[in-house]
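Quick one, tokens below:
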């Protein structure tokens, strides 16, 4: 099970661009590439999937046990030629002071060698103590090589390589010049999605070309193939099987934040998934339940509002008793309205509240939800015995004018 963990010394160092480029470059070589992302993250996996041609899975210490992470990785990697796991933030960053939720901890759990991306802008000899520090900080993490990114000139590249060769035993597997054309568009919740990016395939091809010409792919592949064997994870309890249940799922440019393993879990439990486009479809497909995930409904609010036929259909289905699970942007869509940039757009109206997009984050970070008797999932228990459900929040929206006594 060849595998490589792509991490960096800090956020915005270029690891996503490098991962996309590696996935596309290996796929060009005819390899079956499997991608994973240290979660929580919805958008990077969309780019990984577009580059590799296969779904990308989240691996998240907050939402999964270690055995669940190993099981998800094992299922996703099985049969592939190489698995690429992209970390988040810096290699040793995380909420836990001991690093239990860091990218380094995930790399250790997966026993995956690490390709460390270093943003070399403005650096020279100082790259050596930086690399030495990362190499020595946790000896159980295998840093197998370095990729230098945002290198200014060939002269600077030479200085960086010589410093690393003289003072460390970490091989430089490649160096990528600073190129703003490779940067992906960012918005308030992170990268723009592939569905909203003009010339998406051309952007991915450009990243693949950069990787092909600037990284030693043969050596990278050899390192990935040297990863040690993984132990079999403990068996997880199977989900109860539901018969003849159809779940309608909104999936389009406005709603695309879904974890692949969640959808697969629904299918393993016996559900049939049918997808619809909330921007264009006039009717909700025949279904027993509704699932609307997150996304960017605010940027598509005018089109969502204009599709009044579907909004009426959804409202009627929910009023008739159809169960629905809606989170983030999905919850916004089910509200009465969305206000963004001074304009208010009518939505479904099933949730008696109005949504207002703020200029700053209204909630950001890992959270533990206190489960009530109305929770649709079995709660876990924390060490202090409180029922809780692990989750994360990152949103600019807030709800206003909530009807008194509302439960949703």
């Amino acid at each position: 099970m060849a595998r490589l963990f792509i991490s960096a010394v800090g956020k915005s160092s270029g690891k996503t661009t490098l991962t996309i480029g590696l996935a596309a470059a290996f796929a060009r070589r005819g390899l079956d590439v499997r991608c994973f992302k240290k979660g929580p993250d919805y958008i990077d996996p969309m780019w990984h999937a577009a580059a590799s041609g296969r779904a990308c899975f989240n691996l998240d210490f907050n939402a999964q046990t270690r055995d669940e992470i190993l099981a998800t990785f094992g299922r996703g990697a099985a049969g592939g030629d190489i698995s690429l796991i992209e970390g988040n933030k810096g290699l040793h960053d995380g909420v836990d002071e001991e690093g239990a939720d860091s990218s380094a901890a995930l790399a250790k759990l997966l026993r995956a060698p690490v390709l460390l991306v270093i943003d070399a802008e403005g650096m020279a000899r100082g790259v050596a103590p930086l690399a030495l520090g990362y190499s020595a900080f946790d000896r159980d993490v295998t840093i197998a090589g370095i990729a230098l990114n945002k290198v200014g000139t060939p002269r600077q590249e030479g200085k960086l390589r010589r410093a690393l060769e003289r003072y460390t035993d970490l091989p430089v597997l490649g160096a990528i010049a600073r190129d703003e054309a490779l940067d992906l568009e960012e918005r308030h919740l992170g990268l723009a999605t592939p569905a909203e990016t003009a010339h998406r395939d051309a952007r991915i091809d450009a990243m693949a070309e950069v990787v092909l010409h600037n990284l030693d792919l043969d050596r990278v592949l050899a390192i990935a193939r040297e990863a040690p064997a993984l132990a079999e994870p403990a068996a997880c309890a199977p989900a109860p099987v539901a018969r003849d249940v159809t779940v309608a799922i909104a999936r389009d440019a406005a709603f695309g934040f879904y974890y692949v393993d969640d959808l697969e879990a629904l299918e393993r439990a016996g559900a049939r998934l049918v997808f619809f486009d909330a921007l264009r479809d006039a009717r909700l497909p025949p279904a027993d339940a509704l699932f609307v995930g997150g996304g960017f409904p605010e940027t598509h609010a005018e089109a969502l509002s204009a599709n009044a036929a579907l909004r009426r259909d959804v409202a009627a289905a929910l009023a008739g008793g159809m169960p629905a699970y809606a989170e983030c942007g999905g919850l916004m869509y089910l509200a009465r309205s969305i206000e963004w940039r001074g304009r208010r757009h009518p939505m479904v109206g099933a949730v008696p509240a109005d949504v207002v997009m703020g200029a700053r984050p209204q909630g950001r970070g890992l959270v533990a939800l206190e489960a009530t008797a109305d929770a649709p999932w079995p709660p876990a228990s924390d060490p202090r015995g409180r029922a809780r459900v692990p989750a994360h929040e990152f949103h600019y929206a807030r709800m206003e004018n909530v009807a008194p006594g509302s439960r949703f």
